[in-house]
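Hi R.,

Here's the chain you asked about this morning:
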Amino acid sequence: MKRGYAEVPEGQMHYRIEGEGEPVILLHMAVASGDEFVRPIHYLSKYYCAIAPDFLSAGDSDPAPFPYSIADHAKSVINFMDAMGIKKAHIAGHHLGATVGMEVQINNPERVNKLVLSGFGYHPDPDEGIPFAAGMVATFRFVGRIPGSY
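And the predicted structure, written out as tokens:
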């Protein structure tokens, strides 16, 4: 497994990568990093190019430039994909990563092949924040039905 850094407008995002083929981006839970996917990456890399970035302010990535919301993390994922030359990817998210993955799908459906969510939480009031880490606030924002869903 290789490790590297992608330059995004917000700073450097650290990532782990292994395999070839269609990219699958693995988004970690809060107060964790992409290292939670080290074992699954070895399995997935037999079939895909598995990539596990660390969100800004997590793992070995740079600190976020301001308190980050879910929408900010989703924008950073798109910027990460751009930096890596990825036009479209499968996205799998765990807890916070599931929420960020959902936000990516809602706002950039043309960039997402398939979306896999684990431990996805729903918070009905978009004005209430949910503590993330290091003083960041994550806010859930749902905009209608996900394109392509039933």
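The helical segments are 38-44, 70-83, 96-107.

Let me know if you need anything else.
M.
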